[in-house]
Amino acid sequence: MKTMKKTVSLILAVILALSLCAFGYAAPGPTIDTSKTASLNIYKYDLTSAEAAGAWDAGAHVSSGVYDSSVNDALGGAVNYAIKGVKFTYLKVADIATYTSSDGSGQTATTVYSMPVGAATTSFLTALGLSAENAHHQTEDVYYFTSDTLISALEKALADNSTVTKNALEIYIGSNGGVTMPETDEYGHSSASGLPLGLYLLVETAVPENVTSTTDPFLVSLPMTSIDGASWNYDVTVYPKNNTGAPTLEKTVREASASTGKNTGAADSISDGYAHTATGSDGDVMQYQIISTLPTITSAASQLTTYTFVDNLSQGLAYNQNDVVIEFFKDKSCTDKITTWAQSEGKFSADYTAEDGGAAMTITMTGTGLSEINTSTEVYGPTGQQQGYSACTMRITYSATIHSDASVVYGNTGNPNNVTLTWRRTNAEYYDTLKDDCHVYVYGLDLTKQFSDGAGHFENVKMLLHNNTDNYYVQATQQDGIYFVTGHTTEEAQATVFIPTAEGKIIVKGLEDDAYSITETTTDDGFVLLKEPVKVVITTADGTVCDVCKKPMLTASATVNGNAAEMADSNESANAFVTLTVVNTKGFDLPQTGGRGTLLYTVIGIVLMAGAATAIFIFSRRRSHR
Fold this sequence. Notes:
By secondary structure, this protein is α+β, with helices and mostly antiparallel strands. The protein is built from 7 helices and 37 strands. The protein has an 11-stranded mixed sheet, with no helix packed on it. Strands 2, 3, 4, 5, 6, 8 and 10 form a 7-stranded antiparallel sheet that branches. Strand 28 and strand 29 (472-479) form a beta hairpin. Helix 4 crosses helix 5.
């Protein structure tokens, strides 16, 4: 009887099973198809620029893990905001599993991520601020974590210190077999396929020059549950965000001497006389400064691998070599100094080369210098959100001397000095440049000497040139009949004496925009000296806009004794020389002792004596006839 009951029970069970199958009630199995592999697609867009242009609202987009044509159309359409040259590295960190636990109320099943116990997992958990104690469950060989725990830990670690977390995860993924995806193309796209199912860590490990902040490392489950919770997505698409931007660059110049009144000579001020344009005399030392705000550095992936300045100097000036100094400041106004680099410290090099039409100086950050820029803890400490000298201000200073010869450009064209900054980040194939320039202006004097009768001797004329603005006498040397300014002196005895050429010309090259007096100290015999000095004023004002920096250049004008004066060109450079003519007139003739006055008296005396003798002769003859 018992045997019969067992047989009937078995038959009923089989019938029930067949019936459930017939009506579609199959026994439940795993919802993930473990026979499949997954794929990952990344689209990298410059959301910073897109948001600024109003082309994108990050708050309106919900990340679903599915390809979104509206995103690609908005960011990769007529204006393409794709970022080319980004590299992501991925690493599978866990398997997807179900863990069933039992408590007083019954059995509980939970999706968990299993990680093997070992040094690699410990390193990963440490970067997230986790330990074995945070595991949902653990055995001797495996840790089980829920997605909630992992996601919350990563978010907190990034919020607490994104730089430290990014660097830790970059080191972890590079040390444990991470696979680097192809760099993003012109559409900002990169992909990986045939990936085993599991939980993956993705870290941005190389970026082009315009990326200022790398994407936060993120975890992605392959496959991932669809946003409606109804299915699994094996082909995941993500749109990670980058902050983009560039460093800044500004080049300015001033006359080195503080005695001119154009600056106080302050070495620690970036505004004391420094400007896009400056005037100087031949022989003057000009001080230059380059101000650059460094790009943001948030992790090793965004560190700088190149930061180089190429400075080009006009042929009218010469570098005063080996006087380059680099300073770093926390603020843009350069008042809160971090440190100063001297060239002898080996943190940068300055190399000089001759070029057609001028010279060049290349300032290159060495490996030691780049390491300090990228990793110094002086500003942000070891646990800052940024690192190194991120977003700090770099100031470079050096000097150059204006030549005292014809190589100087005189007039409105000026003597330009441009600088080009080249920088690279971790993807060294991509770089960008910034360019700025400044201009030094120099002028001259074209004086024509004349005599009213055209017969004077020019070699007997002597003149002095005094700078009334800065109270000094001009010193110069003559080359091929032209005086080139070489310096100045406060002593009249040491001043250069200017003498006209045989053609009556005094051409002086190398004056700045100041007020001058021309004093004639000696003229030719029989001619009248100038009653008082001739006053010449050279004035500059904003002119045309520079093509490089988009700032005004200078244009010059002049007056002679208060009247507007003509300015002559020099080799197609307008308003180069103040032109004027100085005329000496004849002096008045006066009687001179021993000269023509005495002769007149002598002649008159002879005539009177002759008359008297004649009268005596006639009178004697008349008496004789009587």
